[in-house]
Structures are given as C-alpha cells and as structure tokens.
Amino acid sequence: MTQKKCSLCPVSPHMPTRTIKFIADNIKELLFIYMQKIVIVFILFSTFVFQTSFAAEIDSVTPRKLKLENSLSIINAIFNQRMQEAVQKANAQQGDFEDIDEDEYFEDEYIEEGEKLFCDEEVLYTELRKAIYQSFTASWGLKGYDLDKQLRGLLSRQSYSLSLNDSIYRDIDYLEGFSLNLKELSDVVNINGFLIGLDKIGHFFAEGWQYFELTQNENNSIEQAIEWGKEQEAGKFGYSTTGIFSFADLVANFNGWRFWNKVLLKEDDPLKGVLANFFNRPYITCDIQIIASIKNKKIVKAWEYNSRFDLSDYVDGSWDEGNNCNSYQDPIIEEKVTLRIKNVDPDFSCPFSAEYCLESQEKYGYYAKYVLHPYCLIAAKE
Residue 227, Cβ neighbours under 10 Å: how many? Predict the structure, then answer.
C-alpha cells in the first residue's frame, strides 16, 4: 500500500518509529542544544564584528572644564623614540655591500640596486609602522585602535577617562550604535590647550598611512584619499558602528598623510607655501656614512633620523570634537545626544570656539570643505 504524504507532520512519514520516539523523548534537550549552538554562533559573530569595527568615540563635552596637564612632550617623546628604533632596525637589514666590486658599483646598472641596497624605502616604512604601532606586523590587525589603547595606559595620569554610562552617548542603544556599546570610550588629553581624544592619534598614524598608500601606491589624489576616509566614517568607523560621524577624525587622517609624506618628503606639503616647503626637511634621510665609506673604500649610505617629530606641527582646534562638530546617523540619535549635552552644560554649543574654526579655515584652505563640519566652516568672528 502506498503511504500518503503527511503535509503537517514535523518528521518524515518514512522515519523509523524508534527515531521518532527518540526525538519525542528528548525534544527539550535537543532544543536546548540547538539554542546553545545559536548562542555560540551569535557570540562568535559579535566577536568578529567587534574586532573588525574600528570605531572608538570620545565625550568632548563632559570634561571640557577640567584642567588637564599638557601631554604634548610625553607624546612626542614616545614617538620620537619609536621612530629612532625603526631607523635602527631598517639599517640593520642593509644588504651585504662588502661583496660588491668597487668598480662595478659605480656602473649605471648598479646605481638602482645600490640605492636599494643601502636605503630600502619599503623596509623603512614597514619598520616605522611596526615601531609606531608596537606590533610584530606592519599591517595586520586594528592598528589605530590598538595604538589608542596603548596610549590610554601610557598617559593614564594625564588623560581623562569616562565610561559610556556617564557620557553624552549613554542613551544610544545597541541597534543605533553597537560598536559604541561594545567598546569603551577613548580617553581625552590636553595637547597644547586642545581637548583631543587619544583615538585621534590612532587615526593620525593608521588611517594617515592608508591615505598615504592610496596616493603613493594606487596613484589616487589627496582628494580621493579624503573621500575614502569619508566613506569609512559613513561606514565601519562611524555611522554603521557608532551612529556618529566624526569630522575631527577626518582632520586627524589628513594630517596623518602629511606626517607620512614628511618621512622622506617626496612631495610638497599641501598646507605650506612655496617658501615654507623650500625650508621643510624630511624626518629621515639616506646619508653617506663617512667612517664606513673610508673603512670599505666605497660609498656607504644609511638612514638617519634628522628631524624630530612634533605633534604640535599637526594639531589644531579642529581635532577637538567640541569645535569640529560631529554628525549623527539620524535625528533620534542627535536628539538623544543634544539633550544629554544640555544636561551636562546648558551653555555649550558647537563649535565651542569660533576662533579655532576660523584658524582651521585658514590653515586647511582648499581642503577645509573636506575635513571641517559645516558649522565650523561657516563660523564667524564673535
């Protein structure tokens, strides 16, 4: 006899009776195991999202009236030391120039190889990134976020730490900003009188390098690199993960490009005039080593760290989110944040200092429209 198909049965009509009985007797346990697997998958997925969402935010309103020690000299000392270490490690990877025949070395075909032998730019940039990020690799991982966390520890006495639940962002829920709720806020520090998040230094070095790579290796213009940065802020760095778009991040990114460009200074600084660019000097140069050249009876070159890094060459009032205002993914998030700001400081309005916005308009000139919030762009003298 042909058995009719049971359209409402939860199991196949051809399933053995013993199997059906087993399922019926253990249905609760099976469901529990199934739910456990769903939870595990969810946790793994959340962890992956957490690890791949780079965004860290700061509250630039709550601590605005605090007196914080200027962190500039400590930050400069940290990164000058790291850059010097990078130069030493890059030089340690020099080729074996002793094996090159003295007469052959000066022939045309050896010039290019000889330059790379002594001063390999790719090695230098790799060692710089590894040293700056304090990482075994130059590219793998969340470099900017990791650097942000390092600096929170190194500058714990100079910085101000605030929990999300005490900040102006406390009302943003998981659906509106899941990364904001998963990660703690970054700390803020005083750099030459500007209240700046340590996340901006991560942006400066890590995203600044991304800008530099786009212009150097992929032949993009600076404007195209900045547009890439804006896309990231509208995606994994901002709207998609925290609900917040930070124009101060864009300023830090752009200045990071200026830093990486100054390492060897192969292009003029777009924010400097003709005279200033003429006197501008790279951080690192490939110089003749006199003693080694005499000893080996041939020209020997090596990288030298000649110009010290100073973050004040890049920082200004537009790095401060209290001046270079944030934008929000939707009006609901903006209303929540605005209400909390009014509770913290009823007199606060962004930009906090119109003067800093005016200075930034002049400093960034043509690029101001790319990196300044509209409120900072239209700020006028008070």
Answer: 14
